[in-house]
Amino acid sequence: MIDGEIWTKTNNNQKEYDKELCRDMAKCFKDGQSIRHIIKPDKEWIGTYNSLEKGIIYKEKCYKYLSTFTQEHYSAVRKDRCKQSNGWKECECEVDGKWISTFNLPY
Fold first, then answer.
1. Domain-located, residue 61
2. Which is nearest to 85 in space by CA: 57, 49, 45?
């Protein structure tokens, strides 16, 4: 998979290529923007995107990928669970005071 690629199924079950979703943190997030991952019911990590580091800073550690951010969160909080995750599906970013999914962010 290349940054920004996503395959979706059309009504006739054919795969359709969609290049419009952002999968490059440097293009999706602004410096200082809050990114969060929640493990229900009450385990929340909120990091900050740092454009110089090109990653999410959480507790002085820099995460270069959303999936690494979510995997570390699972490892720390849910030791009973597999740490595999899709950070783009599971995270949210703050935009104009509201939390929105990182999955459907446009470029």
1. yes
2. 45
